[in-house]
Every structure is written in structure tokens, then in C-alpha cells.
Amino acid sequence: GTAPLSAAGAGFVAPGAQTAQGVGLSAAWTDRWFSADLGATPLGFREQNAVGGVEVSPELTPGLRLRLTGEQRAVTDSVLSYAGTKDPSSGQVWGGVVRDRGHGQLELGLGRADLYAGGGYSALSGHEVQNNTEVEMGAGGGYSVYKTSTDEARVGLDLVYFGFDHNLRYFTLGQGGYFSPQTYFAALVPVQYSQTLDTFSWNVRASAGYQSYTEHSSPVFPDNSALQAQLDAAAAGNTALLTAYPGKSASGFTGGLSGQFEYHATPSLVLGGRASVQTTGNSSEADGTLFARYIFDAGAPADPRP
């Protein structure tokens, strides 16, 4: 929030630990190469946003597929970016960042191998958060090194690039609380094993590789010129005050581990769970989910059309 001004003797206070909880809503429709969903960020968060998207993935020729995606999604990097928060000194609420994203990708299947390449553009916005944009590109593929009627092991290579216009990963007013380097590159080798039985399926995936990223310096209050001017004026008489977060460049290991299972309790009811641990940039994230999914037309005859 406005805590950096406390060092200038302005009477501002730092916030304590924060949590957020709520109930999210989502509905989805899938029909062959078309899918769409619509929902909302969890009810009970300080900031509420509609989320959803549309994806079309027609097969252009045998083995060659075009995947086009348009969506608005929540940025879940932190309590600030996902749920929004309140500054205890000013009472200002800010955060709740969403990404409006367009993405296109070509996917080529070559027997036991597959290749992909694509790119996209995003515009990010949040309540009282500086607007931002992102460009992304990626390419890679995989190969099935072991395959039976029920089991498969795959290895691959993923090349990732993205870059944001502004560095907004901090937590003062106007910042977004999400990782947003100006350049990011990673090369990863994923390994996946999966098994599909009559009523039960599971998979586990591990990836490891190298990353390199650069962040530019960022004003403490990038979306509030009055507060930034107040801080700049205070810093003129106190060189210890920070008026901008410094830029940095770093490189090193990146990777993750994830797994998922699904159990078909009935033809319509699916129970499952998934969990993952991921390191990106200078942060680590762990998450887990248990879910129940009901498929309304699971017992309907298969569509005879190709």
C-alpha cells in the first residue's frame, strides 16, 4: 500500500499478513473443435471480475491443427493480483488483475511425435493498477518413447519467451503483485507418464530447464502521480528513501512437478484431483485441487460426423 511513506514520517503503517477466500463460479460447453466457458473470480474477494474464454481448434489437414484462443483470466500470482487488497492507511482498495488474451498456435502430429509453435498478445488491467501489455511466443514438441494400449511415456522440449511493457510485481499502490519481466526466456525438458484404464486415469509430469529474465526499475507508485510526487519530495531530503524498485537480471534453474487423476464413478460423474509445484523467475508456487465434474450428455450416442 502506502507503507513506503512511513519512512518519510508521514504516519503511514504497513499491513500485516493477508488471506482471501471465496467461492468461484464457472460453466463450460465443449462440442468437437469448439469450447467456451464463463465464470467469475471467487465471490467474497474484495475485487470481482468476470472470467471466461472461447477456443476453436479445427483440423486444417490430417495431423495439422490450428488452435485460436480468446479469453479473460484472473492473474493468480498473489493475494493482490487475484483477490485485491486494502491499504490500512489510506483505505484504498486495489488489485484484482485480469488478462485479456489472444493466442494462436499450430500443432502438427507426426505419428508418435508432435510439434507446436504459436504466439499471443495480452492486455492486463486491475482496479487502481497500472495497465500493462504482454507479448508471448513458444515452440516445442514431444515424442512417445513408450506406448501401449493403456500406458504412455513422453519426453519433449519447450521453448518459452514472454515480455511485459511494465514491471509490476511489487505491492505498493498501483503495482499489480504479479511477475512481469521485460524479457523472459526458458528452455525446458518435460517428461510425462500417463495411464488410462476403464474407469481410472492418471498422469505425472516433471520438467527441468534453464531460465533467464530481466526486470526494469519500477516506480513505487506507478499509477498515482500525487503519491509518487510526495515520495520524490521526501526523498530529496532523505537519500535513504526508495522512490523506485531497482531493476535486475537473473538466470538459473526452472522446473516443476505436477500430477492428476480422474475416476469415472458413473458415465456422467467424474471425481478427480491435481497438484503441482512450479518455480518461475524468483518465485515458487504450489497448488492443489479436488474436483467433481458432471457431464450432462455422457450417455448420448456418439456423433457419427467426423
Plain-language structure description:
- With 306 residues, this protein is mainly beta.
- 6% of the residues lie in helices and 60% in strands.
- It has two helices and 17 strands.
- The chain has a 15-stranded antiparallel β-sheet that branches. The chain has a two-stranded antiparallel sheet with strand order 13-14.
- The longest helix is centred in the last third of the chain and has 12 residues.
- It is globular, with a radius of gyration of 23 Å.
- The model has no long low-confidence stretch (mean pLDDT 92).
Topology of helices and strands:
Blueprint: E1 23-31, E2 34-43, E3 50-56, E4 59-61, E5 64-74, H1 79-83, E6 85-86, E7 93-110, E8 113-127, E9 129-147, E10 151-164, E11 183-196, E12 200-215, E13 218-219, H2 225-236, E14 244-245, E15 248-264, E16 269-280, E17 283-294
Antiparallel strand pairs: 1-2, 2-3, 3-5, 4-5, 5-7, 6-7, 7-8, 8-9, 9-10, 10-11, 11-12, 12-15, 13-14, 15-16, 16-17
